[in-house]
Design a protein that fits this description.
mainly alpha, globular, 11 helices, 314 residues
């Protein structure tokens, strides 16, 4: 089998896997900055949002596991030149126990199995979401050893590459992965009485916005660091290369997301705060804007999936 189908498998698996892990981490983490009055005692303030989030977790966990296995299969196929020997016991034994990828892959499979178990076992919602947030975070960090960030070696330079990549993914996961429960909350809050709906909507958006500003700051700093590592400090190497083109495309989509976030935070939210007629029009516009922001986030993940399999220009 030639290399093109393997590349397609790696791209699709990475894209779906990124999305599922962002949901596992970001959507679980969402409940930890929503505030005591919205997230205490079984999340009584937003019961429908909490139930929708749990359902989303039940979908995301198996998708993360399946796409994660497919991604590992793509890595193995890329190493062996095709999918013909992926299921061969000798090849699997060599991959898992005699390569640098092996321990990372084993720990990753264990974390994915843990996510499935957390979804299936009976437990309180707070415990379930806390555990999934932790497992999702570990999976995002673990991912660094399967990509370009692992090329820095075992010294301080390599550790900094892993740290920058891990911070980048965690911040992006909190931002993009928090959008689905945010939309669930905005939809549920429109069913409150008009004045209460406006107050809850403003409170929810304000809390998410504070988290988002911290996440975006970390994304920008770690993103610059990651790009610097990929080009060995010479940013001119990003021009006229496929890697650079994909990176600039990713930056463009992220800038569009930032523009939407800016409008939401500094234009639409103040309008909702001072609007007459209980701000129903402004709240509806905010829901649509957040939906479009999520669509752009999914597109960013697709571009990131391509970036992860593109050869860096250093």
């Amino acid at each position: 089998m030639d290399a093109i189908p393997i590349i397609y498998v790696l791209f699709i698996a990475r894209w779906i896997h990124f999305a599922a892990l962002f949901v596992l981490f970001g959507s679980s983490f969402f409940w930890f900055y929503m505030g005591r009055e919205q997230s205490s005692a079984g999340y009584g303030g937003l019961p429908r949002t909490r139930r929708a989030t749990i359902i989303l977790m039940r979908v995301a966990a198996p998708i993360a596991a399946i796409s994660g296995i497919l991604w590992l299969a793509g890595i193995l196929a890329n190493m062996t030149g095709g999918f013909d020997n992926v299921a061969d016991p000798a090849t699997l034994r060599l991959f898992f126990f005699q390569t640098a990828f092996g321990p990372v892959a084993i720990s990753r499979l264990a974390l994915l199995a843990t996510a499935i178990a957390v979804i299936l076992l009976p437990m309180k919602d707070r415990t379930r979401l806390s555990t999934l947030a932790a497992v999702g975070a570990l999976l995002l960090i673990n991912q660094a050893w399967l990509g370009h960030a692992a090329e820095g070696g075992a010294g301080l330079y390599g550790a900094l590459m892993i740290a920058a990549y891990g911070v980048h993914l965690l911040a992006a996961g909190a931002w993009v992965g928090g959008l689905p429960p945010l939309l669930f909350a905005l939809v549920e809050e429109r069913n409150f009485n008009p004045n209460e709906a406006r107050l809850w909507t403003l409170d929810t958006l304000s809390r998410y916005s504070v988290m988002g500003m911290v996440a975006v700051t970390l994304i920008i700093i770690s993103g610059i660091a990651n790009a610097g590592f990929r080009v060995a400090g010479s940013f001119g190497r990003l021009f006229d290369t496929f890697y650079g083109e994909v990176l600039f495309a990713k930056i463009g989509v992220v800038m569009a997301m930032l523009a939407l976030a800016y409008v939401n935070r500094f234009v639409l939210m103040p309008e909702l705060r001072t609007a007459s007629f209980n701000g129903l029009t402004q709240a509806r516009t905010l829901r649509r804007s957040a939906t479009f922001e999520l669509v752009l986030g999914i597109l960013v993940l697709a571009v990131a999936a391509v970036l992860g399999i593109a050869p860096p220009p250093q």
